[in-house]
Amino acid sequence: MVYAISLSSEELDDIDWQLQLDQFMSKTMGFSLRPRDLSPQVALVFARARSSAGSAHPAYQLRWLGVVKHPKGRKVGTRDALIKVEPLWRSPAPVELAAVTASLSRMDAEELTAMLFNEVVVLPDELGERLVAALRELGPRFAELLDRLSSVADQVPFDSSRIEDRSWQEQYDSARLALSIAEFPLAPLSAWRRPRSPHDTYLAGLIPEPTEQSLIEHDAAHSVTEPRFLQPWDRPDFRCDIHVFEHQGRRIEVANVNATPGFSARQ
Question: How far apart are CA 46 and CA 259, in angstroms?
């Protein structure tokens, strides 16, 4: 099951700094539209641009990915329910929906575009699976991020009958209180998987965040429009860390060597 959230580009731009700081977002959806399965699920957040001339549909761009959670008893108004997307991580790169649906059937692409007219929608299971598979094909950074989100969504709740679970619950509550007092975001604590050893601490099970590296890669690849890659993007595991930009006879090369093996230049 996959949730799709669609907001206007202006709305997302206005709250971009807040989303980056808090690493979560709240949204309402029709109470009657909630699925029966309220377990955590992967969510895709799209920016909706205005329809261009000659186009009947607005353009969509993937900006954020996260995990939807349904807070118990959180009903907003008479007909709406509150959902929370936490953790919320920035997409490794802004991706136009057209680039993703290119690998889907025409029927799937049209159904997805039509459903995104709603701000919050639960995609049919098969369509959601095909959409996630198409995102994985965009490269290893997307596959890694989706794996992390799946780990968060599949997180096993604490079992109060187990000693280690009671200990992890206490450690989680303590860490959450400390972050709240210091006014740090709480989202990192929710990205957790059960440690291998029952003697490990709760912090040992935290899933590392991909945000910083993704931002660096995004800035390196999008310093100016229409970059020309030094090497062809012809393999799913290929990383392009050197980007070349040329404009009006001027040339600039941007090299990203953060968290990557060193390299030597050859003449």
Answer: 28
C-alpha separations of 157 from 69, 162, 264 in Å:
13, 12, 48
Report d(CA 79, CA 238) in Å as an integer: 47
Of all residues in the chain, what percent are helix, strand and coil, respectively (each to 5)? 35, 25, 35
**What confidence score (pLDDT) does residue 228 get?**
44
Closest CA to 214 of 88, 97, 128: 88
Average pLDDT, the chain: 78
Residues of the chain with confidence (pLDDT) below 70: 51-56, 71-78, 209-241, 243, 256-267
| SS3 label, residue 166 | helix
- pTM (2 decimals)? 0.67
Q: How many residues does the structure list for the chain?
A: 267
As a whole number of angstroms, the distance between CA 28 and CA 120 comes to 8
Q: What letter represents residue 90's amino acid?
A: R
Kind and range of the H or E run holding 43: strand 41-49
**8-state DSSP, 67:** E
Residues 267 and 38: their CA atoms lie apart, in Å, by 58
Decide if 135 contacts 128 (C-beta within 8 A): no
Give the whole-angstrom CA distance, residue 103 versus residue 95.
14
Would you state the pLDDT for residue 46? 92
3-state secondary structure of 83: strand
Q: Measured between alpha carbons, how far is residue 181 from residues 67, 84, 177, 189 in Å?
A: 25, 21, 6, 15
DSSP assignment of 103-154: TS-HHHHHHHHHHTTSSEEEEPHHHHHHHHHHHHTT-HHHHHHHHHHHHHHT
